[in-house]
Structure formats: structure tokens, C-alpha cells
Specification:
This protein is of the alpha+beta class. It has one domain: Vaccinia Virus protein VP39 (Rossmann fold, 3-Layer(aba) Sandwich), CATH 3.40.50. The protein is about 35% helix and about 25% strand. The protein contains six helices and five strands; from the N terminus they run αβαβααβααββ. Strands 1, 2, 3, 4 and 5 form a five-stranded mixed sheet that branches. β4 (about 175-180) and β5 (about 180-195) form a beta hairpin. It is globular.
């Protein structure tokens, strides 16, 4: 991803950007050096969110902003509910937790506000967004992507059960095929706050 980002930046002649892989909880960002920090579906995987947000706040200038895009709760995200249902093959698959690193760790607005306030942010705004999520131009393309992304859900099933689960997924993707591609409902939070 870093190589791709660097290539795209070079192709677009964007010279005021660098790309690094770092742990936001401990990375020695320059103090008060940035105006904004942005995360698109990444901050919910922080092992210690208060440490990470505190470190990011330290890197922001006074009044600097943090902007996050995170998932709303599991039950509001048709795409993941559908994939879990299809690939469960009749098993009970636990929903990722909302209070530990997972796609839903920042799905509760009360928890979001508490974490950001503890890290030195104020003026926390949480806005709900609901948009169709695109998985590919057609069911075959979407199937290749989704079945690879969620392969762990069928690992360990016997071949017949695995086949049924993948057939169910393929059928569900076909049901969600529109003239704009394979679309599922999704729900996210757009979170904004500023450093004190």
C-alpha cells in the first residue's frame, strides 16, 4: 500500500506528502506539527486507543483537528451481517467486540467521546452516514474479493459445508447486483474533534 501511495503521489506530482508505516500509539511524531489527523477505518484497531489518541493530539497544533471514519454497530451494517450469515454455514460466529480492537471498537458514540476527551480532544462531533458500499462491478468480481477477504470464516469447515457457504455467498452477492455494481447498505460514523 505504501508503494502504491508513493507511485500515485509521484504520478500526480504531489510533493508535500510522505508515507510511513508506524504505530500511532508510540510513534515520535513531531510535537504540534500538524493541522489535521485523518483515519479511514483504521483507528478502531488501536490496542490502546487513549495512548494512540493522546499521541496524535500531541502531534497536532493547538486547535488542530482529528477526523475519523469508523463503522456503526454490526447490526446496522448489512454488508457484514450478510457475509457472516452466508459464511457461517449454520454455525454461530461471534460478532467482533465493541470494546476491544475490532471493526466495531469505535461504534458506540459514548465510548468515542470518552476516549477522545481522555486524550485531550474537545468539541467531539459524531455524524451518522449511511451509504451503499461497492464490492465490485459484477457478482463474480465481488465474490473473488469477498471470499478472499473473509476466507478465515470458512477455514476449518468440511469441503461440503465450505462449498455450501460459498454458494450462499455467491447467491447473496448476485441478489445485490445493480446497474452500478454489487452494493450493500453500510453505516459509518464521521467523527471530528479538535485538540485543546
Amino acid at each position: 500500500m505504501l508503494r502504491l501511495a508513493r507511485r500515485r503521489a509521484a504520478r500526480e506530482h504531489v510533493t508535500n506528502v510522505t508515507f510511513e508505516q508506524a504505530d500511532a500509539q508510540i510513534h515520535p511524531f513531531p510535537t504540534a506539527a500538524f493541522g489535521v489527523a485523518v483515519s479511514r477505518h483504521g483507528a478502531m484497531f488501536f490496542g490502546d486507543p487513549v495512548a494512540a489518541f493522546t499521541n496524535l493530539a500531541r502531534a497536532l497544533r493547538p486547535g488542530g483537528r482529528i477526523v475519523l471514519l469508523t463503522w456503526q454497530p454490526f447490526e446496522r451494517n448489512e454488508w457484514l451481517r450478510a457475509f457472516f450469515t452466508c459464511l457461517a454455514a449454520g454455525r454461530e460466529i461471534p460478532v467482533p467486540p465493541s470494546d476491544a480492537p475490532s471493526p466495531f471498537a469505535l461504534s458506540d458514540p459514548t465510548r468515542i467521546r470518552s476516549l477522545l476527551h481522555a486524550a485531550g480532544f474537545s468539541g467531539v462531533r459524531v455524524e451518522g452516514l449511511a451509504e451503499p458500499m461497492y464490492f465490485g462491478p459484477d457478482p463474480d468480481d465481488a465474490f473473488r474479493f469477498v471470499s478472499a477477504q473473509h476466507a478465515g470464516l470458512v477455514r476449518g469447515l468440511d469441503p461440503a459445508a465450505q462449498g455450501r457457504a460459498l454458494d450462499d455467498l455467491r447467491a447473496d452477492l448476485a441478489e445485490h447486483h445493480t446497474e452500478r455494481g454489487v452494493l450493500y447498505d453500510s453505516a459509518a460514523w464521521l467523527i471530528q474533534a479538535h485538540r485543546d
